[in-house]
Amino acid sequence: MDSREVRTGRWWIDRKRADDGADGLWRVHDKLYDLSAWLHQHPGGKQWIALTKGLDITEAYESSHLNPDVDLILKKFYVRDAKTPRNSPYTMEPGGFFRTLKSRVYEEMKTMQTGTKMRYLMCEITTGSLSGDLEYLVKWLCMLLFMGKYGQIRHSKIRDWRITHSLSHHIYTNTYHDLEMMMMEPFLQWLPKEDKSWIARNLSWLYTPVVYLCVYHGQAIIRILRHGVEWPDAIGLATPTVMYLFSGATLLQCLGMWSFIMLFSSVMFATLGFNAAHHHPDIFHEGDKPRKDTDWGLNQLDAVSERIEVKKTFPWSHLSFGDHALHHIFPTIDHDDLAELYPVFERTCAEFKVALSHMTTWQLISGQFKQLMRNKGNATAPEVRLAVST
Ligand code: HEM
């Protein structure tokens, strides 16, 4: 990857298309499928299928669906075997960690009452049955989260977010293929590269707040410069327009307040996103010695740490990217349900002798800055560093 290139979701996907050996079809493991005629029928929406034409979708496909019957649908679209080996370093072998956990989670979820907590909380909020202070706090946090998510999605657009977050960051966490991390270069460089500049190593803690402030606007400017103005960009103007039409404030005041909201949610989103789970010298980053086992699920665990304070808590885990390891491995499971899956998750980790890393919020925040300074890879592989004694 050329560090001078301007990285956007669509740029990433074009590069990946050239590497994946899918011959303009959809690749799952070592087989090619033609989903063109089926994309409108995909229950998860046609965009996922349309976006990934010409790509290896193995990890996205396997982690998005728990039900093994989905494979029966896929089979109908088989065209031929792929001619080249997969470009991804990861595997998902039967009997391996990921597949074992996936089938157990699927069975477990059959017996669970899923997706109820958030609905219950919303009922409590709308009927006003929470105690005064708690209701105020929860509403405030929900509004912040909404502003953050809405603002981020608006600036990056859903399509680009699906690429940078779901197809890139979720699958290739903390590697060169993790666009969410690589898009912040050269300002923030988490990979332990020997050629990291002195400024990036030693001064990034100082200019980090400025980078956080610029994330939304920077992404929007880069995307518009690279791909031009597109009609969904108009959605972004809905907020100041509504403010102007209904608040009685002047246009300048509305634009000022809108800019403040965007800058505020940019800082909030970046602070949470970059400090919540992935960056600490003890967490795997490309450049460190990887574990021998190439199982995708295990490698996901190496790139994540749980935040002790919010683990299994509701709604704090929702609001601050908690229960992150399970969320990474099974991104389509409602965040509501993750807490209940820990017994099966922890049992499977113990069986595979893999330790789930746990850190406090402060350890992760300070570790994130230490990671920015790190320019040497860990020589000890995660299975040795995080070994579980039996
Ligand atoms: C890039 C690859 C894909 C992604 C990211 C993806 C994503 C999704 C998402 C987000 C859902 C909704 C899940 C929910 O609401 O709980 C879904 C459902 C579904 N998808 Fe996909 N999908 C992909 C490829 C495929 C393929 C290739 C097939 C089969 C040919 C397929 C078949 C289904 C089916 C049957 C469902 C509904 C049942 C279920 O969720 O288990 N998907 N998908």
Automatic annotation (TrEMBL):
Span of domain Cytochrome b5 heme-binding: 15-83
Matching InterPro entries: Cyt_B5-like_heme/steroid-bd (IPR001199), Cyt_B5-like_heme/steroid_sf (IPR036400), Cytochrome_b5-related (IPR053100), FA_desaturase_dom (IPR005804)
Keyword Coiled coil: no
Transmembrane keyword on record: yes
Superkingdom classification of source: Eukaryota
Segments traversing the membrane: 203-222, 242-264
GO BP annotation list: lipid metabolic process
Pfam annotation, one family: Cyt-b5
Annotated keywords: Membrane, Transmembrane, Transmembrane helix
PANTHER family on file: CYTOCHROME B5-RELATED PROTEIN-RELATED
Name of the protein described by the UniProt record: Cytochrome b5 heme-binding domain-containing protein
